[in-house]
Design brief:
By secondary structure, this protein is α+β, with helices and mostly antiparallel strands. The protein has 2 domains: 40-272 and 490-512, Aminohydrolase, N-terminal nucleophile (Ntn) domain (Glutamine Phosphoribosylpyrophosphate, subunit 1, domain 1, 4-Layer Sandwich), CATH 3.60.20.10; 295-343 and 355-476, Rossmann fold (3-Layer(aba) Sandwich), CATH 3.40.50.2020. The chain is built from 16 helices and 26 strands. The strands form 7 sheets. Strands 12-10-11-2-5-3-4-26 form an 8-stranded antiparallel sheet. Strands 6-7-8-9-13-14 form a 6-stranded antiparallel sheet. Strands 18-22-23-24 form a 4-stranded parallel sheet, with helices on both faces. It is globular and about 70 Å long. It starts with 27 loop residues before the first strand and ends with a strand. Bound molecules: iron/sulfur cluster. Residues 215, 274-276, 420, 422, 424, 471-474 line the site of iron/sulfur cluster.
Amino acid sequence: MQNDWPNRAKGESRQSQGQSSGSQATPIEWHDDRPKEECGVIGVYSPDSQAARQIFFALFALQHRGQESAGIAVTDGHDVRMHRAMGLISQVFDEEKLLPLVGDMGIGHTRYSTSGASVLRNAQPIYCTSSVGEIAVAHNGNLINANQLRQELVQEGETLDTTADSEVIARLLVKNLHLGPENAVSAVMKRIKGAYSVTVLTPNMVLGFRDPNGVRPLVAGRIGSGWMVASESCAFWPVGGEVEHEVGPGEVVIIDQSGMRFAQAAPKVKDTMCLFEFIYFARPDSEMYGEGLYQVRENMGRELAKEQPVDADVVVPVPDSGIPAAQGFSQESGIPFHEAMMKSRYIHRTFIQPDQRLRELGVRMKLAPLKGQINGKRIVLVDDSIVRATTTKQIVKLLFDCGAREVHVRITAPPIKYPCFYGIDMASKGELAAAVMSIPEICKHLGANTLGYLSIEGASRATGGANGKLCLACFNGEYPISVPAGMTKMAFEEPPDVGQLATVTRGQGTLDF
Ligand code: SF4
């Protein structure tokens, strides 16, 4: 097959290359100081219906895990057909884009870039040809040895199409698929190190596998007369599916016409699931380790009220993610809960650049105060995390501007002192407020009356069944998978062998099949 376009599958057209409007520019983050989610992955075998349609609706439930690009690849047993583009799922897909995606097996991806730039060539699924036919791969997480593996692949004569670490997984799989699915995944897992939950589409099966530490989530279950694997259980609900199994560390799920089966592709090292999935990343209606995340976040609020009590008139959440913890804080402390800020739900990811005057308005673009709930009150402000402290500072000021008498900030994530290398985009160490300031200094910087964080022990306890099975590295610096010095998100942005990609400009175009 002639392949003059990166990651391009059979039938893929270049017709939309570079023809996109300004709506394909890199989206603007509205002063959101939260850690950025990673990616969401899905794999579906749907014998009674088009897999693309199931994946499309399931991907909506994973939109919170990545809003930069999205893609779906399907197969009818012969060809892989795929559509990927920059933007939200609702911007990437419409009826016209879904119709050509014919087949009962497929995988989907929604991306936030944690390795490689946010450009079309790095959108997923990643496409490759292999000894068993065309395949597509979707990845959530970060490989910590991808740089070394890329160099080895290039030395072996491979041409890499993307600057994302996920392509390393795809290329290694291609080399091993002739061994059969379990052995191929096993061979790949022997080489790659880091955090990964991956879905793979081959001409006759869907695979899903999770790293030996189980850092990123992956669940599998039934959907109609077929099967599905997805990053979070919330993806099953909109398509009438039901989770049957949490894929374990080092485990692979194989879905084909004979059903769904599991195998241990690599020995489990240790359960070290990301604590931030429980605090903020995953959707509150998802379950992990059998625990409902809304309940876990309420538990965190209760623990926070016990550890960091304060005399106040009202408990106010930072919407929306602070709501369950604020309710828990209120229940434990007996201080009434009130919403005092309304979130503009639709400005979160816009492609329209604000002018300088609008930029200076900061958090106003996203949050509007309910002044009657604020004026004259002593407020406990509950939020999930402080990264750089920029947004929290603006919210504290907004509350005082609206007449708050006192503002006491309470945070369910323990102080974040170390960066994440496992698929979460936070900030470099020097940008993390808790890495460069003491808690009293951060409180002064925020302009709050008091500041209290939940302890690592308290946050872990609140996770119930996950306690003792968590990655806590960004809080305590103990990385469960050792990280090479100098690792950054953009480590592969100037790879040695991507000359043909020079025509792909930032954020432009779509890739169609
Ligand atoms: S370092 Fe922090 S954000 Fe990253 S996986 Fe571990 S707990 Fe999650």
